């Protein structure tokens, strides 16, 4: 299996396209907005050949200047954390363990930086049972819920490191 790696410039356009294919779950990004997202993140990794990546993980730590309702909810409750803002795997790479590899590598990086937890949100309305099952297997537990202005209801999850 391919290992997580830092993003290369040739990865950005295909990762933006991959993100936007899954915009309902992740949120649509314009090119400049996506560049800012990647440039301000605590941790970004991909898997797959340069220029043809098959997966993306973007995470922020508590010090990020990130204007996001979910990030603000978590920041109000935890003094330190690494927030998994988005993880996406191309349909052609599903079932290859890429999400697990990205999360494992993030956990190692976060722990080495002195972090104590990974956090994320998962849609519950509209439901995303596959994501809930994946995160439960990875050791995440639900710590709260919120209804967002866009009509989604999300559950917040934490995984101690």
TrEMBL record:
N-acetyltransferase domain: residues covered: 2-161
Alphabetical list of Pfam families matching this protein: Acetyltransf_1 (PF00583)
CDD domains tied to this protein: NAT_SF
GO molecular function: acyltransferase activity, transferring groups other than amino-acyl groups
Sorted UniProt keywords: Acyltransferase, Transferase
InterPro entries, alphabetized: Acyl_CoA_acyltransferase, Bact_Acetyltransf, GNAT_dom, UCP028520
Protein name per UniProt: Acetyltransferase
